[in-house]
């Protein structure tokens, strides 16, 4: 059974169907589509052979044979968890929009469903052109979501978002075409094997870098994200943070590291530098925010710093052997980066949904408009504090796992890398919990807060589902990490072999 | 055995979940019943574990419960190590927790957050048990941060109070500074030993002697010293050592039962426990030990001094806790780990007693905490009075009381220690004895003796607290008296800890102190030959004279030496400094990075700037595109002319 195709096309066609049934009946159908898509993605996990780094659930249909472009899908231990995350978050998104979106709900839900299909396509594509098409296609629904249902400065935000990410991926297209001329195929696996000269590698590295660094985003090409988040509707922010950013991280793992390992090694210092700037600089910037969504957006960028750090620490960790297997810490870094991506998917989505819950009631994102929310919304306060703690990387929540792994791994490369990365313990707690103090705790700040009503059953269900995931992977990350081993080990092995 | 050990932390967890999630349905009474039952089970199981360990076989239990994660061939596990050190901690934690649970029924009686409170303290008990029972660094860190979380939740329990939510944020952040160091220490351990399991790490540790790492290019630092100091920074946060002590006094904003349980008896001693657990590492680095002993002695002395000028009943006890934690840290630095744990144990009981007694006074005084507005409470609150007296005597180290044995052992051990800094530490701990007696009895006299300074309304309603409050006081008073004499023989000099604590032969000060040990009675008698005892008496006498006989002396002193008084009153300016430099400085950096870095440079210049430049350029080009045919024709002719002239002149 072509599971991957089913998931992709079920959501896309399901999205179109939702569009046709109209605003009245769109909600249950959208929910059904998202749940079925998620159920179809479950066999990817339970039927996954974790002992091999080979692509699984592969599908391959010739598309443009003259250029060796194929409709080729497949997953390994790196892509599979991201697909599950995507289909899972999709359900949450549909639930979150249930009563909230009153303006053109069918179009809204259809955009999300179609986008989910595209995003699954990004993670499942094993052909570079197919990857590129999905990668670009995700922009369109997101563009519409922010542009139609967004806040007052949505036009500025959408243009910035679109130009930024589009500009980035143009360079990637050039790189992909060049790689085709070298490998005579658009298969990503062929790209991994093709030998490349040093100069070419450097150019390709930067072409990929521009595309993925903008997407994830890395400092200093990050400023589109806070604007996009602030203007996006709640679910848009949630998907943007939970899934779309991960396409950048995934790109680094799928393209940069294995396709140009030598350039990656030479330029690892740059990536590490930018990652650490993201952790420290952005951590401070988050502290200065007065808008909750902006604060969480900056917190996302800071957390993504751990993803890129974990990936590019590999070379340092390999160089600096002291005890144990050479690849131990290198694998730890990459797996840490992966765990951080998945975990951030749950936590950032939850944080944005939390803000959405009170935004729907108060129509303000400004921290100063709040205060003492715990008095009127005790259950909500419990959720918010829980997710804030996860965001601050408290052990027992999934937020801890990735950061912990990356810090351990980077210590091996250099003490000061670990030192700077570990400042997130303080900075992350400071900006998150300070916000909590001002929003959730304290006396009731004004009449609007006094009139708040606690979370509805729908909201409780949605946040509860996310809380369960955060807690589960915090207490037992093994099921998540276990499936990655073979693929990550293969990747680490691959990057150690020079392509020159 | 495994099941028993799994059940020990699980029982309070189940109680916490029940009271936390189903508190409304269960109601108040059932909530406290179920949580108390959970903790009581944990206590009973801890006692069984203790008995098993004492009954000779003493087999160390060290097993994995489940594999948390395997990554890059590095195993991260959740597992228990139950040895003689662990069982002491388990018993202390569960017994004090049980007393506090019972006490809470009375103290929080009218609070709307009753169930939530019980849920939190049971959750704390679970986290603390996980911490002390861990057999690896990761789980230790788990428990470490989890108790920090509960501490955060409990300090801010009254979340409407601005001071409470300020204090809990401060506590969490300061602890995070400590955890920052702790995490780096753990990373160092993993890197150099390839494992996080205690046994494996300790086995690999001796091989690291002499190994160096370069933190600054060119300068080699001993790996063990760096690791131990990083780990100790974690202990400094949790066990509130200078300069990371600032959160503990503020934590008194939380309800009194948790001040007793978390911020006196158990959580704050986690750092002491951790260093004792890491003794096989610390023993290998004398530099780290010196660092520990100096930090400890500074805390012991300086925090005691601040205790003298405090007027809030809970803050006096809080500063006393800081000072006592300093004593324990000094013991660690002197390699007298068993003395540190011994003092930790006796202190847990008498300090919990003092806090709960203070809580009883606060109930009686209708939530008045200023000792200047108390006085003469002796006749109104006899049980509180006598139990407080016992607690105070134990604290100042009155001969025969439990605190006497533990504190004297520390002082003797420091006296014997040869480590750099031990001379300084000896002076500090001796002066500390006088100061401890002085501030303790200052508070005691001001609260229970002398003239009654409260208003008439309060006085009319003064009465002894209910029995759910006084019974725990009495139950805690018993170990405060006898525990020291009972256990000193085996715990300190009987080699009770066995392999649980490792002391290098050259550092073994307890062994030297033990050479003069011939039973608790002779230990007491020996005390009469040492300065410590007389200093304690002198402190008591001075407090009596100044605060009961001649109250004017205190005022005269405060005026005459106002700079000292001011210095102590400002707590040496740590708070102001942190507030200005760290909190204020961070916000300023944040503001600059945001407004200049992101808004002006990146967005203003690079992003919108380049968009603007494109705009300007196109505007410029647009002016040429006039649409008039003759303009274009004219431009063509000029161009043609120019090309022709170039062609002509160059050939």
Descriptive key words:
heterodimer, A: 500 residues, mainly alpha, two-stranded antiparallel sheet, 25 helices, 2 strands, globular, B: 651 residues, two-stranded antiparallel ribbon, 26 helices, 4 strands
Secondary-structure element string of chain A: HHEEHHHHHHHHHHHHHHHHHHHHHHH
Side by side, the strands of the main sheet of chain A go: 1-2
Helix segment count of chain A? 25
Poorly predicted regions of chain A:
none
Question: Largest sheet of chain B, order of strands side by side?
Answer: 1-2
Describe the biggest sheet of chain B?
2 strands, antiparallel
Helix share bin of chain B: over 70%
Overall pLDDT level of chain A: 91
The total beta strand count of chain B reads 4
Radius of gyration of chain B: 31 Å
Summarize the structure.
The complex is a heterodimer of chains A (500) and B (651). With 500 residues, chain A is mainly α.
Task: Summarize the structure in words.
The complex is a heterodimer of chains A (500) and B (651). Chain A is 75% helix and 3% strand. Chain A has 500 residues and is mainly alpha-helical. Chain A is built from 25 helices and 2 strands. In chain A, a hairpin with a 4-residue loop joins strand 1 (56-64) and strand 2. Chain A has helices spanning 3-21, 26-46, 79-97, 105-124, 128-137, 139-149, 154-183, 188-193, 198-215, 224-231, 234-259, 261-266, 268-287, 292-312, 314-319, 328-362, 373-376, 378-391, 398-413, 415-422, 424-439, 447-450, 457-475, 478-482, 485-496; strands at residues 56-64, 69-75. With 651 residues, chain B is mainly α. The longest helix of chain B is centred in the first third of the chain and has 53 residues, at 2-54.
Question: Mind sketching the topology for me?
Answer:
The complex is a heterodimer of chains A (500) and B (651).
Chain A: H1 3-21, H2 26-46, E1 56-64, E2 69-75, H3 79-97, H4 105-124, H5 128-137, H6 139-149, H7 154-183, H8 188-193, H9 198-215, H10 224-231, H11 234-259, H12 261-266, H13 268-287, H14 292-312, H15 314-319, H16 328-362, H17 373-376, H18 378-391, H19 398-413, H20 415-422, H21 424-439, H22 447-450, H23 457-475, H24 478-482, H25 485-496
Antiparallel strand pairs in A: 1-2
Helix pairs in contact in A: 1-2, 1-4, 2-3, 2-4, 3-4, 3-11, 3-16, 4-5, 4-6, 4-11, 5-7, 6-7, 7-9, 7-10, 9-11, 10-14, 11-14, 11-16, 13-14, 13-21, 14-16, 14-19, 14-21, 16-18, 16-19, 16-23, 16-25, 18-21, 18-23, 19-20, 19-23
Chain B: H1 2-54, E1 61-71, E2 74-82, H2 84-107, H3 114-133, H4 137-155, H5 162-193, H6 198-204, E3 212-216, E4 219-222, H7 223-238, H8 247-250, H9 256-265, H10 270-277, H11 279-282, H12 286-309, H13 313-333, H14 337-364, H15 382-396, H16 402-416, H17 422-448, H18 456-460, H19 467-491, H20 509-514, H21 520-527, H22 531-549, H23 551-560, H24 562-569, H25 574-624, H26 629-650
Antiparallel strand pairs in B: 1-2, 3-4
Helix pairs in contact in B: 1-2, 1-3, 2-3, 2-9, 2-14, 2-19, 3-4, 4-5, 5-7, 7-10, 7-12, 9-14, 10-14, 12-13, 12-17, 13-14, 13-16, 13-17, 14-15, 14-16, 14-19, 15-17, 15-19, 16-19, 17-22, 22-23, 23-24
């Amino acid at each position: 059974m072509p599971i991957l195709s089913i998931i992709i096309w079920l959501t896309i066609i399901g999205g179109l169907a939702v569009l046709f049934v109209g605003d009245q009946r769109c909600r249950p159908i959208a929910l059904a589509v998202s749940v079925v898509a998620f159920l179809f993605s479950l066999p990817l996990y339970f039927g996954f052979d974790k002992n091999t780094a080979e692509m699984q659930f592969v599908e391959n249909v010739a598309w443009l044979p003259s250029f060796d472009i194929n409709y080729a899908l497949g997953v390994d231990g790196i892509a599979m968890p991201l697909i599950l995350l995507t289909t899972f978050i999709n359900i949450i998104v549909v639930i979150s929009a249930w009563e909230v979106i009153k303006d053109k709900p069918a179009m809204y839900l259809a955009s999300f469903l179609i986008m989910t299909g595209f995003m699954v396509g990004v993670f499942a594509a094993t052909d570079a052109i197919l990857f590129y098409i999905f990668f670009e296609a995700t922009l369109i629904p997101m563009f519409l979501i922010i542009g139609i249902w967004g806040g007052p400065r949505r036009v500025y935000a959408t243009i910035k978002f679109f130009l930024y990410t589009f500009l980035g991926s143009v360079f990637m297209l050039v790189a992909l075409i060049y790689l085709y001329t070298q490998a005579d195929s658009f298969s990503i696996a062929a790209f991994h094997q093709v030998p490349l000269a040093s100069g070419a590698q450097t150019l390709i590295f930067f072409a990929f870098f521009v595309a993925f660094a903008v997407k994830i985003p890395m400092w200093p090409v990050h400023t589109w994200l806070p604007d996009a988040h602030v203007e996006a509707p709640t679910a848009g922010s949630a998907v943007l943070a939970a899934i779309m950013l991960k396409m950048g991280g995934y790109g680094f793992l799928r393209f940069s590291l294995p396709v140009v390992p030598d350039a990656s090694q030479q330029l690892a210092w740059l990536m590490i530098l930018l990652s650490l700037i993201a952790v420290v600089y952005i951590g401070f910037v988050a502290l200065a925010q007065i808008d909750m969504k902006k604060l969480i957006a900056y917190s996302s960028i800071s957390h993504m710093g751990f993803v890129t750090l974990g990936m590019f620490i590999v070379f340092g960790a390999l160089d600096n052997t002291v005890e144990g297997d050479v690849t131990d810490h290198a694998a730890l870094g990459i797996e840490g980066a992966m765990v951080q991506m998945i975990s951030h998917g749950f936590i950032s989505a939850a944080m944005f949904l939390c803000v959405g819950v009170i935004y729907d009631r108060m129509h303000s994102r400004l921290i100063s408009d709040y205060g003492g929310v715990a008095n009127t919304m005790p259950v909500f306060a419990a959720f918010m504090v829980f997710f804030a703690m996860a965001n601050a990387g408290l052990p027992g929540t999934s937020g801890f796992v990735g950061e912990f792994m990356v810090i351990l791994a980077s210590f091996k490369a250099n003490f000061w890398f670990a030192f700077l990365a570990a400042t997130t313990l303080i900075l992350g707690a400071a900006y998150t919990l300070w916000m909590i103090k001002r929003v959730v705790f304290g006396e009731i700040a004004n009449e609007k807060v006094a009139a708040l009503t606690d979370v509805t059953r729908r909201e409780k269900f949605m946040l509860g589902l996310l809380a369960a995931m955060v807690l589960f992977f915090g207490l037992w990350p093994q099921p998540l990490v276990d499936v990655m081993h073979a693929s990550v080990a293969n990747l680490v092995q691959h990057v150690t072999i020079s392509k020159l | 055995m495994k099941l028993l050990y799994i059940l020990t932390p699980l029982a309070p967890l189940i109680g916490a979940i029940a009271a936390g999630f189903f508190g409304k349905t269960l109601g108040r009474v059932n909530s406290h019943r179920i949580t108390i039952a959970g903790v009581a089970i944990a206590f009973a199981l801890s006692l069984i574990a203790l008995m098993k360990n004492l009954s000779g076989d003493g087999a160390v239990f060290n097993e994995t419960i489940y594999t948390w994660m395997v990554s890059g061939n590095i195993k991260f596990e959740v597992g228990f190590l139950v040895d003689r050190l662990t069982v002491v901690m388990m018993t202390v934690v569960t017994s004090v927790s049980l007393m506090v649970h019972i006490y809470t029924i009375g103290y929080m009686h009218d609070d709307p957050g009753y169930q939530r409170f019980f849920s939190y303290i049971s959750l704390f008990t679970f986290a603390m048990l996980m911490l002390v029972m861990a057999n690896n660094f990761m789980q230790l860190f788990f428990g470490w941060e989890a108790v920090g979380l509960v501490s955060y939740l409990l300090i801010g329990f009254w979340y409407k109070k601005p001071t409470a939510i300020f204090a809990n944020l401060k506590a969490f952040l300061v602890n995070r500074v400590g955890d920052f160091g702790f995490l780096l220490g753990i990373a160092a351990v993993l890197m150099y030993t390839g494992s996080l399991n205690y046994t494996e790490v300790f086995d690999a540790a001796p091989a690291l002697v002499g190994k160096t790492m370069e933190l600054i290019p060119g300068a080699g630092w001993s790996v063990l010293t760096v690791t131990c100091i990083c780990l100790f920074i974690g202990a400094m946060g949790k066990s509130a050592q200078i300069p990371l002590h600032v959160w503990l006094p503020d934590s008194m904003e939380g309800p009194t039962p948790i001040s007793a349980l978390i911020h006196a008896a158990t959580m704050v001693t986690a750092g002491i426990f951790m260093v004792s657990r890491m003794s096989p590492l610390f023993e290998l680095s004398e530099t780290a030990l010196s660092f520990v002993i100096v930090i400890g002695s500074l805390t012991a002395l300086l925090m005691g001094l601040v205790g003298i000028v405090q007027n809030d009943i809970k803050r006096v006890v809080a500063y006393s806790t800081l000072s006592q934690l300093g004593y324990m840290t000094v013991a660690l630095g002197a390699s007298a780990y068993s003395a540190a744990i011994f003092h930790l144990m006796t202190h847990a009981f008498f300090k919990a007693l003092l806090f709960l007694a203070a809580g009883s006074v606060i109930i009686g005084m209708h939530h008045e905490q200023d000792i200047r507005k108390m006085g003469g409470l002796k006749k109104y609150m006899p049980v509180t009075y006598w139990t407080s007296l016992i607690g105070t005597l134990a604290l100042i180290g009155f001969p025969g009381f439990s605190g006497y044995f533990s504190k004297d052992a520390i002082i003797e051990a420091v006296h014997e220690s040869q480590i750099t800094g031990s001379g300084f530490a000896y002076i500090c701990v001796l002066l500390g004895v006088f100061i401890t007696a002085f501030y303790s009895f200052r508070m005691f006299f001001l609260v229970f003796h002398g003239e009654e300074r409260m208003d008439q309304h309060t006085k009319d309603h003064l009465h002894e607290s209910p029995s759910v409050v006084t019974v725990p006081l009495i139950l805690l008073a018993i170990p405060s008296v006898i525990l020291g004499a009972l256990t000193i023989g085996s715990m300190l000099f009987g080699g009770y800890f066995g392999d649980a604590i490792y002391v290098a032969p050259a550092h073994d000060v307890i062994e030297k102190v033990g050479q003069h040990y011939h039973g608790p009675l002779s230990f007491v008698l020996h005390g009469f030959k040492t300065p410590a005892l007389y200093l304690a008496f002198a402190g008591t006498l001075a407090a009596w004279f100044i605060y009961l006989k001649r109250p004017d002396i205190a005022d005269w002193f405060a005026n005459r030496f106002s700079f000292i008084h001011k210095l102590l009153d400002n707590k040496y300016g740590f708070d102001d400094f942190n507030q200005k430099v760290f909190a204020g400085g961070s916000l300023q950096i944040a503001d600059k990075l945001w407004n200049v870095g992101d808004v002006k440079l990146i967005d203003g210049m690079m992003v919108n700037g380049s968009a603007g430049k494109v705009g300007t350029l196109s505007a410029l080009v647009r002016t040429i595109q006039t649409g008039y045919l003759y303009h274009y024709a004219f431009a063509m002719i000029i161009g043609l002319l120019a090309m022709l002239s170039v062609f002509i002149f160059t050939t």
